[in-house]
Specification:
heterodimer, A: alpha/beta, Rossmann fold, 2 domains, eight-stranded mixed β-sheet, globular, B: mainly alpha, two-stranded antiparallel ribbon
Amino acid sequence: MALDTKAIGLLILGLIIGAAIGYGATAFTGGGGATTPSGGTETAGPQEQQTVTYKIGFTLPLSGQLSSIGKLWEKVAYMAVDDLNKMMASYHLPYRFEAVVLDDGTTEEKALQNVQTFAQQGIKVVIGPAASSQVKAVKSFADSNHIVIISPSSTAPTLAIPNDYIFRNTGSDALQAKALAALVNHEGIKKVVVFYRDDEYGTAFADFFKKEFEALGGQAILLSYASNLADFASEVASLSSKVQSEGAEAVVLISFDTDGANILSHAKDDPVLSKVRWFSGEGIHGASELLQPSLAEWLDSINFLGTRPVFISNPLYEEFKKKFENLTGTDPPVFSEKLYDAVFLAGWAIVRAGTYDGEAIKNALPEVAKHYYGASGWCILDKNGDRAFQDYSIWTIKQVGGEYKYVDIGTYSGGTLTFTESP
Amino acid sequence: MVGVSEVLNTVQMGLAYMVIALPLTLSYRVTQVINFVHIIFITLGAYTVALLGLIGLTNVWIALGIAFLLGGALAVLDNVAVFEPLWRRGSDVLIIMVASLGLWIFYKYLIYAVLDKLFIILRTNTLSVLVRTEGFPSVTLGAVTIDGYLIDTVVTSVVVTLALYLILMKTRIGKAIRAIADNQTLAEISGIPRGRVLNFMWFLAGGTAAVGGVLWALFQTTVTPEIGDQIILQVFSIAVIGGLYSLTKTALGAFIVSGTENIVIAVLHDTFGLPLSFRPFLVFSVLLIVILVWPPLGAGGGLPYRFRIRPRARR
């Protein structure tokens, strides 16, 4: 009897482990390619040409707070490396690239650990991490070990530092805060409560927003929330009393996607918060929760507006978006076009450097970026290694053909707010 | 000012915490193993209701039933495949606890892998899902609206707690569970089939925790694979306030923690301007105060004598 139970137990365990291994195997053959022992490996190509394979490290939030977008980013990363290799082949260049993807659990410690692991493996170019707080955590290691870091999504203005190994393929929030302040001001709102994550991203965004909004004659009251919680119902309750006691006309939400969706789903049922206007930055854009009818209906009714960094009317973005939708069935999440271009920048910078050396790649990258136009637009960098030109679009949630969708209804470019549709 | 929403949140959160923490205390009391797979039961329950909603099955009672069965089955599987074989080989409870830690991490990444595949099949983001389910309708009393999910939570937690009480106190198998919790060797000598009783207890504990996971999902409304991990510290705090022994003190602990997280923080924020981000800090301060002032593990600094010795038949 005991033996039977044991045998059954072992059988079930074996099945689970087998399934996991099987899954892992398909995931790897699906896009990763075989691993090679060192940073650059030479193999004989089909036309007797020696091709060199370089590894590009990715530290992505595959688990933890940003996992809902991190998992999609992983698909973007493999797609980009695949496309980059096709491009190299079409140019008859003997270089190939291989993605090495590690999960950083959306934490600072694991991001640093991953960059250290990459360093041990001889990898000199790392794409990621996602959050500004994580970029800050890996910065000193990357600088002292000459590892080039290209973050597709870190926007905190506090990380705009010249001559370091940190590059950011997106505009700093100093600019986005200005766009959002202009938008809120344009809507005739004079007093807002800024409800923000108490991390590097949220704090910097909120501070810059306050500065910009008050320069326009408005008043912004700051209220932060701990970003690592499961649920924000009690924070939303406090926000509600703050909005009521201060007589604020609107809430500006600076969040990521899952925390933002949770906050909005509680605010929808709050007697005070469900009546005021809501604005946000890019962090929540693309979250599928916001499109579910119960939430979307309310967001539509209060005319929810947000800003997000995009390159306006870019045919390459449309091409990228279509390709991604065919692959996954969902819209590309926030910053995925920047991640896609970051892979190309990394690849071309390695080719231009002519050697797989951190310092040479760091020096080559700004030159490559200057001449690169991709799904995210013109990638030219400023002196801090951040995206120099960044437009912002004004987005909202609207019913299109019976279905709720994220819709861009205007732009903020060169200090001017333009609406293409009435908000 | 403490408003109605703080009070309603305290109730809903407290009830969900209670349903999650009770089985943790129960399984610890019977086996003396702190089971980390408990986190997975919560996630499993939450995802059951979320995924059913995603495919259009929006009846909360069906979701609760399926979650109970899945959670219970997983707990029995763990016991049969991992805990029992270890126990039979004479492993210490510490080793079994470490094994449960391993299982937790194993299951967590298995969940990620499965959801990733479901993502492709359902062609929608399964890693962050808004719960869509229906139970009782919302009720409006004057200026206050009581959310339907809160009513579902109250009904479910009353039924679950009552059922747990009746099973443990009024049935033969409940008596057997309590006998094993008191003294395992004596229970076995008295002819209680230890293996079968433990399997039943695990089924009950896993199922109840998964039901708790559904209730938590109704409160949180956004479900991610981290949902269990994010609340487990609170759940362990509650179980520790209950001394990992008393089921009534565990229930009390649930409301102490949820009250702190909703009412105390609101009062401190309004009166002293304490930043809202101090919420996790406050929970653990309260835990510390409670266990220092009112030691749950017995004034002597540990479990009562009969729980401290672990008479174990080694084969």
